[in-house]
Write a structure and sequence with these properties.
Blueprint: H1 8-16, E1 23-25, E2 34-48, E3 60-61, H2 62-65, E4 69-73, H3 78-89, E5 95-100, H4 103-111, E6 117-120, H5 121-129, E7 134-136, E8 138-139, E9 143-152, H6 159-170
Parallel strand pairs: 3-8, 4-5
Antiparallel strand pairs: 1-9, 2-6, 2-7, 2-9
């Protein structure tokens, strides 16, 4: 079995080409013939370095974030789409300092003090636990999203894909 990691845009292109057995994504594919199963929560949170001026403050608004540099995932990322939607709903725009193409790059940039960002809590769990990052108390975060597994409708799955799917659905 091969695991390819890519952003949402690339994943949907692979899906339309039927390049893989299964696809893990935050938002099910729209307008595509797909079987979809939701299997886990994926809360998005606002992160900052522990010495950030907003660290420890309560009941912050999205508007407050616009005073600080923001590290954004690349275009095509589902996390980016969710963050942009949140800023748009608040009627504000983030002060984007950098666009980065991987969660790890965003985490390291935030740890280095280059800005704040939005990532999946699962992605930053270790850094939160060890104090390299803090989760800011910003409303309406956490934004609760879900992980989904999808595959083309009518596709006959391999035994490995069926076993993996069964495991996801039983946890």
């Amino acid at each position: 079995m091969v695991l390819s990691v890519c952003n949402r845009r690339e994943l949907l292109a692979r899906f339309s080409e039927n390049a893989d057995d299964l696809y893990i994504l935050g938002t099910p594919p729209e307008g595509m013939a797909a079987e979809v199963s939701r299997y886990a929560e994926n809360p998005l949170v606002v992160i900052a370095p522990p010495d950030h001026p907003l660290a420890g403050q309560r009941d912050l608004t999205v508007k407050v974030l616009t005073a600080y540099p923001f590290l954004m995932r690349e275009s095509g990322s589902g996390t980016r789409l969710a963050a942009e939607r949140c800023f748009e709903d608040a009627g504000v725009e983030p002060r984007v300092r950098m666009e980065l193409g991987a969660n790890e790059a965003v985490k390291q940039g935030v740890i280095a003090g280059l800005g704040v960002s939005v990532l999946s809590r699962g992605t930053v769990a270790l850094e939160l636990r060890h104090g390299y990052l803090v989760e800011l108390d910003v409303k309406p975060f956490p934004i609760i999203r879900h992980w989904h597994v999808a595959w083309p409708k009518g596709k006959r799955l391999s035994l490995a894909a069926e076993a993996f799917l069964k495991r996801l659905q039983n946890d």
